């Protein structure tokens, strides 16, 4: 039903424009009047179809709240549009959106063809290609995309937009394996991936979000360190930069993954070194100072390739995993994160009867303990860390029935499994990592004890090996120790967290042999007087062999278990099941994990 309607204004203002005249038939949504109030334009539209009866205002008129500006008769009939409908914002691309798209395009690989081609010509990926490969499709949301280098005093804005996108750092939040993850990548094609004032601010922003949201971090660290050429801020030294402190503070809070290819020096390397795991490609060079800094310090002239190559940084333990190329490095990063992202429902394992064959019948025959780790773990789940550093100790992330677990194991193929300074550091840091993020630990012990001798003591052995006692005593995660063969002295105790009573169970395989020190040494030391009384060398050797045999019988796992110094001797084929049952007895993870927050203030970088 048609009716006369007064159209009034809800606020005071000035009439800028009247777009209709008396007698016009208008549709719903037609622009009737445009008002200005508080320097903003307000469009008055027809709420329903109708016919304009009268116009009570003209352009330039001042109106007050409640003033009637026109009258119209509502109509249900088909409208004849004579009034203008505001479709400017509904068709075409608005100029501000066009400007935004141009700026965004300039930050993408397609918008920087020359830089992208140079990268590919060198056999390298771009920073964005690595991020795209790491993150689940379409999940990466960038922070600070439109930032440019703080060099406006020496370069034009157009130059900076074209050549310093993101100030050489791409940062944001995406999803990896379905879970949210912060990702930062220095872009070597922009100012050699150096650390500028603006990309420091971007890092600060992301690191604060990481702390607040409890997000893991993946850092692609290629770059040349601090940049001296920024001019837009009053900076003398830049030593008040927060990024390093903020990143270091995340160590005991969230998993930190570093990926490096190409050159990584100074500040970039400092951030990389804070990461729990460092994944490198064969062309990586990592150093706390690059060639310019070395030369400036009067220490000689070196090519970048001479500083911290992987031939140095892998065996010395700086690099945890050496990947074949950037693609594999990204795959390893995704895989590493998965161990901290919960259980997996689908798994399979090897025939556990094969575990019985790992340790040879001859107690003097060496074997590869990695075979035991592979057989005990879910198939395809083993990720060994730092395999080339301290080869007498194996540290690996694995899964057992889909649950993530950390494994430490003596390697009898190196120094018979003796624990030297490097082995102790390697094991202690890995134990810290598992404790920090709630991963159960399985220790596979086969050691004659700590390495001894003058050369060993030159490595500060006393301090290094004692780390295993301190860290082991602090463990709250489920922890079990299985003695595969040798379990001697302080080294065996260290593998059990300081005492055979510390783990939730300490068991041995039937091949186990235990003692306060190695059998041969114990016999020579304990029975030296008796042996010295035997003049005949052959008779003395026979007596010695008989004493060793008796000591071996006394220290056999079965006898030690009979005295209840260990919890049990088990069929090796039952090892996996025994540990899984122990984890079940320990209850769901939240029963022995503090949940969100810190279990440890930090994980040692070494």
Description:
The protein has 606 residues and is α/β, with parallel strands linked by helices. It contains 21 helices and 25 strands. Strands 18, 19, 20, 21, 22, 23, 24 and 25 form an eight-stranded mixed beta sheet that branches. Helix 6 links the parallel strand 12 and strand 13 (256-260). The radius of gyration is 35 Å and the shape is elongated.
Unreliable runs, pLDDT <50, ≥5 residues?
Answer: 79-89
Question: Sheet bearing the most strands, described?
Answer: 8 strands, mixed
How many strand segments? 25
- Indicate the proportion of strand residues: 15-25%
The general outline is: elongated
Q: Can you count the helices?
A: 21
User: Which structural class is indicated by helix and strand composition?
Assistant: alpha/beta
Radius of gyration, in Å, reads: 35 Å
Distance between the termini: 83 Å
What percentage of residues falls in helices of 4 or more residues? 25-40%
- Indicate the mean pLDDT: 92
